[in-house]
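Morning, I've got a small favour to ask if you have a moment. You're getting the sequence in one-letter code plus the fold written as tokens. Thanks so much in advance, here it is:

===
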Amino acid sequence: LNIANLANGSQKSFSIDDERKVRVFYDKQISDEVPGDTVGDEFKGYVFRITGGNDKQGFPMKQGVLVPSRVRLLLSAGHSCFKVRRSGERRRKSVRGCIVGPDLSVLSLVIIKQGENEIPGLTDVSVPKRLGPKRANNIRKLFNLTKEDDVRKFVIRREVTPKNADKKPYTKAPKIQRLVTPRTLMHKRRLVTVKKRQQEKSREAAAEYAQLLAMRQKEQRERKEELRRRRSSASRNSVSKQ
């Protein structure tokens, strides 16, 4: 059993050889909640949610496949248990159904309700987050900052110890995303100016083309009128000669 505690970010694996203890998970599906009283005395009062698992050959469980065995499915982009390597690629792969059975070697669980006793290494420890938030608004939310505060002063830095013992340890910080600076505002103003200039240029070109088109159409009408007058005068002259 691979049990995770989302409250403090810890995770621990338990090896259980007695099949009678894990029989409570049989015929359950992914996302079902199961009490842990029969698993062991240390899990008394705990409630777990099934999040996945692997069978004895290493094939992962897939949500929505309502069989307790292995099947071959045609998977494409957006499906779980499949990594797209080429655009538009589809591939038939073997996956394990989402119903728990005795052929599983690993079952992943999440603690939903904590019981009376603490589980050593799982509920009595707290694993801090290795990385802090990267987006500007998330940093503001974490430290309760206002728009006037400088977000760059509140970035969480982490210390890196080089493998070479001669080098000094140094700190690293993420590049803040969606940070509004004078440079970004200037860049945005420039883009707006370029867009307006292009629109003005397009309007002038359209007006110039419309003027040229009207002039050409007028010249064509005048040519047609001249040709019509010549034909009519020629026909009158031929009638008068007869």
